[in-house]
Design brief:
The protein is an alpha/beta fold. Helix content is 51%, strand content 15%. It contains seven helices and five strands; from the N terminus they run E-H-E-H-H-E-H-E-H-H-E-H. It has a five-stranded parallel sheet with strand order 2-3-1-4-5, with helices on both faces. The radius of gyration is 15 Å and the shape is globular. The N and C termini lie close together (11 Å).
Length: 164
């Protein structure tokens, strides 16, 4: 299976996705980690984002060929990217589940003001991606992020992917 954990920078999706991948014993694929691996200088341009997603999809397909479950961690702010992911997972014989992570703008600003291990996205990147973000109309799980313990939300997500 493929689980896509998506949302805007600072929403808490990476923190959540890493722990979900552990809970599922899945391969964890992060656009932030991949971007740092692939590009010496990162600008978050449309061409750069397209390249990173293409590499992310390639790695997803490789993991699926090896019979691994995959948790993908990226903004996935465009409908066509989510649909491309769904189609490529389906072609590999795997269902795709989508989990959107949301946080209040106040909390996002607080998080983006601190240095994070893998992401360089700042408030400007957040605002640019927020303008471009297309809401997902298909059924999916929405998790509201805050700074409290995520155990209950992880259990909700695990149940969702195992029963949908």
């Amino acid at each position: 299976m493929v689980v896509v954990v998506f949302g805007l920078p600072g929403s808490g999706k990476s923190y959540f996705a890493e722990r979900l991948a552990e809970g599922l014993s899945a391969v964890y694929l992060s656009s932030d980690i991949l971007r740092r691996e692939l590009l010496a200088e990162r600008k978050y341009s449309k061409d750069e984002r397209r390249y990173v997603y293409e590499c992310l999809f390639d790695r997803m397909e490789r993991a699926l060929r090896n019979k691994a479950a995959v948790v993908m961690d990226a903004t996935f702010g465009r409908r066509n990217l989510r649909e491309q992911c769904r189609q490529r997972a389906r072609a590999a014989g795997a269902p795709a589940h989508f989990i959107e992570i949301r946080a209040t703008e106040e909390l996002v600003k607080e998080r983006l003001a601190t240095t994070r291990e893998h992401s360089e996205a700042d408030l400007n990147v957040y605002q640019m991606l927020k303008q471009d973000f297309e809401a997902m109309s298909e059924p999916h799980l929405v998790i509201e992020s805050d700074n409290s313990d995520i155990s209950d939300r992880l259990m909700t997500a695990l149940s969702y992917v195992q029963h949908s």
